[in-house]
Amino acid sequence: MNEIPLSGNIKDIGLPKILINLNRNRKTGTLTIKNPVFTKKVFFVKGDAVFASSTYEDDRLGEMLLKSGKITLEQYDKSVELLKKTGKRQGAILVELGYITPKDLFNGVKYQVKEIIYSLFLIENGEYEFIEELPKDEVITLKMSMGNLIYEGVKRIDNWTRIKREMPSLDTVLILSDDPLSIFQDIELSSQDRKMLSIIDGTKTIKELINNAWISSFEAMKILYFLLSIKVLEEKSIEEKPEVLKEISVEEILQPVFEDESTFINKVDNMYSRISFATPEEILEVESGTDIEIIKKNYYRLSKEFHPDRQYGSTDPSLKDKLEAIFNTINKAYETLIKDSKNLRSSISYKENADKYFKQAVVDFKKSDYKTAAEYFRKAIFEDPSNAKYWSHLALALSYNPENFKDAEQALLKAIDLEPNNSDHYANLGLLHAKQGILQKARIAFEHALKINPDNLRAKKGLQNIKK
Questions:
Q1: Residues in the chain with pLDDT < 50?
Q2: In total, how many domains does the chain have?
């Protein structure tokens, strides 16, 4: 994943991205966020937020317990009086006075820590810094996934401008991630979130998803913002590879794995004992030469069963490291088998497959079925991505739908990158810009085409048309 600076201003990055980056890189240390009013800190151990502190008076434990109704004002005042006299921690004083139990204190501190972290999502402008140091006197562990922390924090945001600023362009098409670490993470989604996930089909833009939502535009934007922040959703790329496996259903992603803790721990221990010597086929439970679709199905199934976030439901302190070791081994096994499978496929000849898809695309194009033609041009590109002709024809098919102009332009730029001295690609780019009414860009493209080939008829005609 892209690295994020370890210091800066949160308005330039966005808090969710900072937190996810620290989590995915398994960082241990202290994240400090400052503004003129207070300083707040979140402490991380191997990517998990385990504790938090704040200089803001309303974030103190006594105030938190008072606001949540755990103690009365009289009890609060008495504890503050003794705190000033003795210097003891307020929580310990409350327990000594019998106002709360040790269990109440533990739960109260966890509540305080979570509230401090959630409050960070309301800060729009503040300096942040992460250092790889931890205080020695704080031992509480939240046992809460980063996905759920971000989820609860985003709920607090009530600023449309801020969320829009941290989102991609509203014309961006969203797709479901194919990364098991993202899609199987521990998140307690609402029915609204699940419904929004169910309509992500890889064709709708952010704007279309919001406009077609059954809830307010702001609430729809917040859901998409959250799902993008934790990487369950991604921006669709023009070079996205066709999926070998049919898209995983939302129901499959969100379906929890039901088993008691002892059964799960035994399964983890068994797998952990095998990962150092098992072959990739044994890890993914497939035979040598198994079809790539079966490999991928098993990869997703096992990634879900042994996802690192499943540690949060267990009391076993060693479970986190075991799960991460298993998960990484599953990933390596998958990468090895997929690479081997692709090497095997190359003997069949990628170019033959590419040519077959290209010919089918041309047939569909002549029938004016530009959408299907584009799909087959993309398949040809997947087989032979270095063929500039395929990219150029994909752009032509896409150019028949104004909503695809941006993707068509990217495809032509890819063709130009592969064949920089082909005047036809520049001529086609000029025609695309002219279609959009971007005449200055069209003129530059046509002139470039004519520099390469002064006899390019399409460039000549295009240039004449925009000069009229």
A1: 1, 241-246, 347
A2: 4
Sign of the alpha-carbon torsion through 456, 458, 459, 464: positive
Residue 110 belongs to some domain of the structure: yes
118: domain range?
A: 7-147
- Show the tokens assigned to 69: 């109704």
CB 399 within 8 A of CB 432: yes
* Count of alpha carbons within 13 angstroms of residue 34, beta-carbon side: 8
48: part of which helix (H) or strand (E)? strand 48-54
Helix axes 217-229, 146-155, angle to 10 degrees: 160
Note whether residue 264 is domain-resident.
yes
Tens digits of residue pLDDT in 203-239: 899 999 999 888 999 999 999 999 998 889 988 875 5
The torsion angles phi and psi of 70, rounded to 5 degrees, stand at -80, -25
Q: Are 384 and 354 in contact (CB under 8 A)?
A: yes
Confidence (pLDDT) at 190: 86
* 2 found inside a domain: no
* CA separation for the pair 403, 119 (Å, rounded): 39
Do residues 77 and 188 both lie within one domain? no
Q: pTM score, two decimals?
A: 0.65
Do 429 and 445 form a contact (C-beta atoms < 8 A)?
A: yes
Final residue in a domain of this structure, among 343, 369, 395:
343
Q: Give the contacts of 435 (CB within 8 A, at least 6 positions apart).
A: 399, 405
